[in-house]
Amino acid sequence: MTFDWKWDFVWEIAPRLAAATLNTLLAAGSGYAIALLLGLALALGQRTRWPALTFVLRETLEFVRSTPLVLQIFFIFYVGPQVGITLSPWVAGMMAIGLHYSAYLSEVYRAGIESVPKGQWEACRALNMTTRDTYARIVLPQAVPQAIPGMGNYLVGIFKDTPMLSVIGVTELMQTANAIGSETYRFLEPYTLVGVIFLALSLPTAGLVRLLERVLRRKLGM
Amino acid sequence: MWDFLQTYGGRIAEGTAVTGAQFGLATAVALLAALAAGLGRLSDHWPVRAAATTYVEIFRGTSLLVQLYWIFYVLPLFGISLPKFTAGFLSVGLNVGAYGAEIVRGSILSVPRGQWEAAYALSMSPLKRMRRIILPQAFVLMLPPWGNLLIELLKGTALVALIGVADLMFVAKQINGSTFLSAEAFGTALVIYYLLARVLITPAMRRLERSMARRLGRA
Amino acid sequence: MELSAYPLELPPDDRPMVRFMNVTKSYGSLVVLDDLNLDIQRGEMVSVIGPSGSGKTTVLRMLMTLESINGGVIYIDGKPLTHMERKGVLVPADEAHLRRMRASIGMCFQHFNLFPHMTALQNCMEGPVQVLGLSKAEARDRSEELLKMVGMIDKKDQHPSRLSGGQQQRVAIARALAMRPRIMLFDEVTSALDPEVIGEVTEVIRRLVAEHDLTMLMVTHQMGFARDISDRICFFYKGKIEEQAAPEQFFTNPQRERTQQFLRAVKDAD
């Protein structure tokens, strides 16, 4: 058996992995920010007066949700230049992750908005509030706490999907571990450490999301 | 586009077949793992519970890609060398199985308390109670979430291309690499994945849901 | 009747606060209101009663523009509510017109519909600040005064989930009044309440009738209350006004067969 864990080697590669962890967090964070905003726009876009728009959005999102993210990353990265848009790996990756997860988040928002009782909309109308104020001040503040668990799960989901960015050369954790492996021919430590880092970050995040959900509900008096 | 399909249609079909095989085998692994771990988490024996929980948390807490690389590149260092095809569906199946375990656990717990008590009152053995009374009812509850999970599983199989399994994703990447017909290569692959999900998996799951519901006399 | 046949405005000597003119409402083939004609005068309190499914709640919801209408025109203070003038004729109103006209109408609902994420005071201040553009200080003064009137000032910082049904409904009344409407609509405001708290809500409405110059339209199942405070009772049956009269006349000497049946049935139930 060739299993020999080398702590020296671990300490040697630790700084590189730490830097890569920051990149991974940055990628997950910016991908999530895009997905949060785009997802909201896509959810609201399905609630306009134009049924055709709703239909087109719904089918498109269904397509995005049913196809592999890794393929979407390739598609955006390689097809972009063909239509005259050359994207850096980072930008292409963020766009793919943001788009992919916005399809999921739009569903989370949609369910949240639909959980707000009809009477709330009617009360807003009776108070003569604008549609914008109705959403911003009454509906979304009630929909978001409903959506928090789903939103949190997809934050963890995005974080765990960032290794796919390595396929177009974004220097996040996986890419760094691959590089270390091919330089030193040692795979045990880098791949295992990557796993441990993911575990160490995603488990507490999941716990934090549950905590946030409880706090938010209490604060909103619900 | 037509030329593209004529030239590369055969290779794409081969890749799709490999994706189909990966999907089928990974589904089998996922179902077994989910059932074992889901029941394990409800076990009265703490070592069983601990083992099941460890499996679920590790596979849900890390990335499929990390698991795939670890199983393919690191396991050999422990003396377990798997061919890439096997490593592929095994990783995908184990990953999805961890999520499936939570579905299994949740649906068993949502079988009404009265059913457990009724089986107990008939002095059924725990094993018989689970097999004859609880699982059939839980099965109906878990089908809809499994439908979504199987779509995730199909998408997950695309990653096996990264360890060299010649699936649909792999073929698309190859064609892209040799011809730079990126839009056609990746676009065709995207459409095929979409069709597999929406024309095969989703309707099949719907049919299964309906027939299960009928067998339980609920439809 | 063609839309062009409706006046763009009612003449100055014939301007009730509310006029339903040939108003029809249907859902598919189900006709909920059939050719409704009803005037409500300035400062009048009209109670709408009738069996369920008679269309009485729809009358209020159309007036609040929560429901569109299929035919006819509703006028508020002589001006069309559901329609607006364009090139000399009436056309269905756009959102801007509805917003302008809706400003003079307030409504209280059966299930209160308070905003759960806001305190009682915040609920009352929301409209004045966001819609009327009042300063926070002005809105607070106005809201606190109204909460005082409905007897809820000591609970002003509570969220709705901490209030009883009767308390929530009183806050809802204050919230509607904070918009200074000229017309108030009460849609079965006591129907969802426990019997022992109905009195605290009817008491507030009683005081509104006595002390304010509001035009009010109320759908209710409480005959005694309706009789006490209304200027007129409107009995709806199958989408039409079957009978309307002053309360004394209506309850002591109903003219129509269906009214008599309904009143007997209600009395038996009590």
From TrEMBL, chain C:
<dbReference type="Pfam" id="PF00005">
    <property type="entry name" value="ABC_tran"/>
</dbReference>
<comment type="similarity">
    <text>Belongs to the ABC transporter superfamily.</text>
</comment>
<keyword id="KW-0029">Amino-acid transport</keyword>
<dbReference type="GO" id="GO:0005524">
    <property type="term" value="F:ATP binding"/>
</dbReference>
<keyword id="KW-0547">Nucleotide-binding</keyword>
<dbReference type="InterPro" id="IPR003439">
    <property type="entry name" value="ABC_transporter-like_ATP-bd"/>
</dbReference>
<dbReference type="InterPro" id="IPR017871">
    <property type="entry name" value="ABC_transporter-like_CS"/>
</dbReference>
<keyword id="KW-0472">Membrane</keyword>
<dbReference type="InterPro" id="IPR030679">
    <property type="entry name" value="ABC_ATPase_HisP-typ"/>
</dbReference>
<dbReference type="GO" id="GO:0015424">
    <property type="term" value="F:ABC-type amino acid transporter activity"/>
</dbReference>
<keyword id="KW-0813">Transport</keyword>
<dbReference type="InterPro" id="IPR050086">
    <property type="entry name" value="MetN_ABC_transporter-like"/>
</dbReference>
<protein>
    <submittedName>
        <fullName>Amino-acid ABC transporter ATP-binding protein y4tH</fullName>
    </submittedName>
</protein>
<dbReference type="InterPro" id="IPR027417">
    <property type="entry name" value="P-loop_NTPase"/>
</dbReference>
<keyword id="KW-0067">ATP-binding</keyword>
<keyword id="KW-1003">Cell membrane</keyword>
<dbReference type="GO" id="GO:0016887">
    <property type="term" value="F:ATP hydrolysis activity"/>
</dbReference>
<feature type="domain" description="ABC transporter">
    <location>
        <begin position="18"/>
        <end position="263"/>
    </location>
</feature>
<dbReference type="GO" id="GO:0005886">
    <property type="term" value="C:plasma membrane"/>
</dbReference>
<dbReference type="InterPro" id="IPR003593">
    <property type="entry name" value="AAA+_ATPase"/>
</dbReference>
<dbReference type="InterPro" id="IPR014343">
    <property type="entry name" value="Ectoine_EhuA"/>
</dbReference>
